[in-house]
Design goal:
Elements: E1 4-7, H1 13-29, H2 40-43, E2 48-55, E3 58-68, E4 72-80, H3 89-103, E5 108-114, H4 118-126, E6 130-132, E7 144-150
Parallel strand pairs: 4-5
Antiparallel strand pairs: 1-2, 2-3, 3-4, 5-7, 6-7
Length: about 150
C-alpha cells in the first residue's frame, strides 16, 4: 500500500505521538536551547498547514508550512519514522509544502535544521534549497543550518 499524504489537524493522538517522537529525536542531537519546536497547538494555528503521511492509516511522517510576513513560508516539523525512512516520504512532504506555498503566492521558502541532520540536508538540497545565513529571527548558531529557496 502506498503512503498517502494529506492536510490534517495535528490535534490527533497519533499525530501528537509522532511529534513527540520528533522532539525526542531532536533533543538527542541538539541542546534544548537550540531546538526551535512548534508545539502541536502552535502547529494547529491559522498560519500553519500540517501534512501527515499515513501508511495503512498509521501516521508515519509529517511536515508543515508556517506562513510569515513578506510572502515567506517556513518548512517546519519535518519527520519520518525510522521504520519508513528511505521511501522518499520527506521529499514528498517538502514537494507538497512547496506546491501549497506556490499556490498561495509565497515568494520564498526558508528553514532551520540541525547541524547533525545530514539526511535532512539531502532532502532539502535535492528539492532545490540552498544553504544560507540565519533566516527569520533564528540566532546564528553552530547548532543550526539554514536553507532557502526562491519561488519567484
Amino acid at each position: 500500500m502506498a503512503v498517502e499524504i494529506g492536510v490534517e489537524t495535528p490535534l490527533q493522538d497519533d499525530v501528537r505521538a509522532l511529534v513527540a517522537e520528533l522532539n525526542t529525536a531532536l533533543l538527542e542531537l541538539t541542546p534544548p536551547e537550540h531546538c526551535y519546536h512548534l508545539t502541536v497547538e502552535q502547529m494547529a494555528g491559522h498560519d500553519t498547514t500540517v501534512f501527515v503521511a499515513r501508511d495503512g492509516g498509521l501516521a508515519v511522517g509529517c511536515g508543515a508550512l508556517k506562513r510569515h510576513a513578506d510572502a515567506v513560508g517556513e518548512v517546519k516539523r519535518m519527520y519520518t519514522r525510522p521504520s519508513h525512512r528511505g521511501q522518499k516520504i520527506g521529499a514528498q512532504i517538502v514537494a507538497r509544502i512547496e506546491g501549497l506555498a506556490r499556490q498561495e503566492g509565497l515568494k520564498r521558502l526558508v528553514l532551520e535544521t540541525g547541524d547533525r541532520h545530514p539526511a535532512a540536508w539531502t532532502v532539502y538540497e535535492r528539492a532545490g534549497f540552498s544553504r544560507c545565513g540565519p533566516v527569520l529571527d533564528y540566532p546564528d548558531s553552530e547548532w543550526s543550518v539554514f536553507y532557502e529557496k526562491s519561488l519567484a
